[in-house]
Design a protein that fits this description.
three-stranded antiparallel β-sheet, mainly alpha, elongated, 12% strand, 118 residues
């Protein structure tokens, strides 16, 4: 992830409703959530949630797919992992004991290897 991409992601996350939405989508896992359910849980109108989802999608932090008559939104775990790694790449001057808790989080979001392992 380069600085421009990180700024776009942080810009999208710097709004309370969008941060709440991305956290809901992270919790929902790969099944994601329909836009209507997101609006209901976030307690915002459908038009308002549509605006926020568009901003999150534009930043690359979420993806969408159509399922029948619904649009299902999911967190883009690869992009979120890249964002965390961007923040942590020069962590603590190489002092592993300081960075250990953060390294666990970054490892959680690591891209899959060719064997499908994370």
């Amino acid at each position: 992830m380069d600085q421009r991409q990180a700024l776009a992601a942080f810009g999208a996350l710097s709004q309370e409703t969008r941060l709440h939405i991305i956290r809901m989508l992270v919790v929902s896992g790969p099944d994601g959530m329909a836009a209507g359910s997101i609006a209901e849980k976030a307690e915002v109108s459908p038009s308002n949630v549509s605006f926020h989802l568009k901003e999150l999608e534009r930043s690359g932090l979420i993806t969408q797919q159509r399922e029948s008559r619904s649009i299902i939104y999911t967190a883009n775990y690869d992009a979120l992992g890249r964002l965390i790694r961007f923040l942590m790449e020069d962590c603590c001057g190489g002092n592993a004991e300081i960075c250990a808790p953060a390294a666990v989080v970054v490892a959680c979001c690591a891209p899959a290897t060719k064997e499908g392992l994370q």
